[in-house]
Design brief:
CATH topology of chain A: MetI-like fold
CATH superfamily of the largest domain in chain B: P-loop containing nucleotide triphosphate hydrolases
Structural class of chain A: mainly alpha
CATH class of the largest domain in chain B: Alpha Beta
Structural class of chain B: alpha+beta
Distance between the termini of chain B: 16 Å
Oligomer: heterodimer
Helix content of chain B: 10-25%
Shape of chain A: globular
Number of strands of chain B: 20
Number of domains of chain A: 1
Largest interface: A-B, 21 and 25 residues
Radius of gyration of chain B: 25 Å
Strand content of chain B: 25-35%
Largest sheet of chain B: 6 strands, mixed
Helix content of chain A: over 70%
Strand order of the largest sheet of chain B: 6-7-8-3-9-10
Order of helices and strands of chain A: HHHHHHHHHHH
Shape of chain B: elongated
Number of helices of chain B: 8
CATH class of chain A: Mainly Alpha
């Protein structure tokens, strides 16, 4: 019996280790490649250098691309959180005609293949006569990200007791005070999670940006184009930085969520 | 519907209030005067429209027809935050992200009262509802069920409403604590002198606390009266059965001068004519289990039935016997000290006098 338990535990450990290696080895490889002295990527790495990291950090072109990516992600985050917040309230709380249909229509874009969605949007922009740029990329990201954020926030709204708002209103609060004092503070963790999702999904999105950002480039788009032509170890360097940036955003966001929850439980 | 004469002016008046949701009639033509300072309880089974009625009074729903007036002024469309009334929700609706103190201070905060005055008032109210002062900074979700009740009460009182509404706030509380809170609520009513309108499906709760009780059924207010009136003079079979377990015998009037005849129980009975309609010739005789007695040798009663005891339950201080009389089951309750010596064949005679029974029209 004891032996069997020990064996089970061993298998669980082996399986977990296998999955972790499978998931994170490629990222580690990228990081290693960025530290290679040689121009071309080949194992084993003979000499290490931080030269490519320095070059990447010094590059004006990459600076601008990172700026564009940040700007796109920030705008997408703000707009999608506002739209998704009210959307989630509407479909989680109120029962109205066509609610279920609305729910399905809103959620559907999540399941569209992104390249198809990107192509469709590009065709639509050119049909309407809109010049594609990072602004159109923001719009394209929103089409895909708003549904995700709506889902994330809706989960929080579903567990929200609407009688709390009625009680606040009954105790003399105005609509605005109800929102500020009751609705928003209770829904904060959901809104914050939604914002985190929006930022990270936009930051890492490649297919939509490829089709709809026009002449403007984002980090994933630049990585791809340099992969196709003109590879230098700056590609894995920027890739690794981008991953680290996303990871720190996630950690920071998680920390804020944890603080929010702890304050609620205090 | 019987209404006793109001000694004080009505604070709230309902005239022909009706509420429909699409085709469904939730509340049907209710007329009611709520007397200033009274403890009025509306009882009814679930789905009888009592919560809808309360929501209209609190301003969360608007009547489809009729008028609600407060101090003679029509308030049908006045929103809840502009009414001098406050509702204690069934769920209590305490703000989970706020401390006990912040919950109680909420109505003062939204009114712009400064923090120092707010805290002083909160502590004062916590004394009124018997919460220790140290709870001011306590997380409201860490309070027990009874403590949460008190927080909800204090918060409602902080709003300083003229009328307080309660939507079954004690329904999820265990029996012992419920008894304590019922008493506290009644004391609080006396101390504050405010008008309380309370909703429950439990007539027991209503009997303990209320000055007057209104009984609702299928959207209608069937009877309004003092607990004594409701208990001893129910207007119909529904009210009489709602008050508790009762024995009901359907009877028809016999020929001129002859006694009434039982329909579902064979026999002739002495029956007082229904209070509501002395000329009725078809009625229900309602006998409470505690008014039925077993007749031993030499005991007499105006009415008697032969039956068999087939079950008995202990109700604490009393014992309830189920007696089969023909097709019907009659309930007899005796205090434990007078428990029936059980005969081998368990056949018994139960009896009652006409004066112990209530007659309601069929």
């Amino acid at each position: 019996m004891e032996q069997e338990k020990a064996r089970t535990r061993l298998f669980i450990w082996l399986w977990t280790a296998f999955v972790v290696v499978l998931l994170y080895l490629p990222i580690a490889c990228g990081a290693l490649a960025s530290l290679s002295k040689g121009r071309y990527f080949a194992f084993p790495i003979r000499a290490f250098t931080s030269e490519w990291w320095e070059k990447t950090l010094d590059s004006i072109e990459i600076g601008m691309i990172v700026q564009t990516s940040l700007l796109v992600a920030a705008l997408v985050t703000v707009i999608s959180v506002v739209v998704a917040f009210f959307g989630a309230l509407a479909f989680a709380r109120y029962d109205w005609k066509g609610r279920r249909l609305f729910q399905k229509i809103v959620i559907l874009p999540i399941f569209f293949p992104q390249p198809v969605l990107g192509l469709a949007l590009l065709l639509w922009f050119s049909a309407v006569g809109i010049q594609t740029s990072w602004l159109t990329a923001v719009f394209a990201h929103l089409v895909w990200i708003v549904p995700v954020v709506t889902l994330v926030i809706a989960i929080q709204v579903y567990s929200f007791d609407p009688s709390l708002e009625e009680a606040a209103f009954d105790l003399g609060a105005t609509r605005w005070q109800v929102m500020r004092e009751v609705t928003l503070p209770i829904l904060w963790p959901g809104i914050w999670s939604g914002a985190l999702f929006a930022f990270l999904l936009s930051w890492g999105n490649f297919p939509l940006s490829l089709y709809t950002a026009g002449a403007d480039s984002t980090v994933p788009k630049w990585l791809y184009s340099k992969m196709v032509a003109g590879y230098t170890p700056m590609v894995p360097a920027l890739g690794t930085m981008s991953t680290l940036g996303a990871a720190s955003a996630l950690l920071l966001g998680g920390l804020v969520l944890w603080l929010l929850r702890r304050r609620a439980a205090a | 519907m019987t209404q006793e004469a109001a000694p004080k002016l009505p604070i709230l008046q309902l005239v022909g209030v009706r509420k429909t949701f699409n085709d469904f009639v939730a509340v049907e033509k209710i007329d009611l005067d709520v007397i200033e300072g009274e403890f009025l309880t509306i009882v009814g089974p679930s789905g009888s429209g009592k919560t809808t009625l309360l929501r209209m009074l609190a301003g969360m729903d608007q009547p489809s027809e009729g008028n609600i007036t407060l101090h003679g002024e029509r308030i049908n469309e006045v929103p809840p935050n502009k009414r001098p009334t406050c509702l204690v929700f069934q769920s209590l609706a305490l703000f989970p992200h706020k401390s006990v103190g912040d919950n109680i201070e909420f109505p003062l905060k939204v009114r712009g009262v400064d923090a120092k005055t707010r805290k002083a008032r909160a502590l004062e109210l916590m004394r009124v509802v018997r919460l220790p002062e140290s709870y001011h900074s306590k997380n409201v979700m860490k309070c027990s069920g009874g403590e949460r009740q008190r927080v909800a009460l204090a918060r409602a009182l902080a709003y300083d409403p003229e009328v307080l509404f309660f939507d079954e706030p004690l329904s999820a509380i265990d029996y012992k604590l419920k008894k304590v809170l019922e008493k506290e609520l009644k004391d609080l009513h006396k101390e504050t002198g405010k008008t309380f309108i309370y909703i429950t499906h439990s007539l027991e709760e209503a009997m303990v606390m209320s000055d007057r009780i209104g009984v609702m059924r299928a959207g209608r207010l069937v009877q309004v009266g003092t607990p004594e009136q409701i208990y001893n003079h129910p207007v119909d079979r529904f009210v009489s059965e709602f008050v508790g377990e009762v024995n009901v015998i359907e009877v028809k009037k016999g020929e001129e001068g002859a006694p009434w005849r039982g329909i579902d129980v064979p026999g002739a009975f002495h029956v007082r004519p229904p209070e509501e309609d002395a000329e009725a010739d078809h009625a229900f005789v309602v006998i409470r289990p505690e008014y039925l007695r077993f007749l031993g040798a030499g005991d007499t009663a105006q009415n008697s039935l032969k039956g068999m005891v087939y079950n008995e339950y202990s109700l604490g201080s009393r014992i309830q016997y189920q007696v089969r009389v023909g097709e019907k089951v009659m309930l007899v309750e005796l205090s434990r000290s007078k428990a029936l010596p059980i005969a081998a064949d368990r056949s018994v005679t139960v009896g009652w006098d006409a004066a112990d029974a209530i007659t309601v029209r069929a």
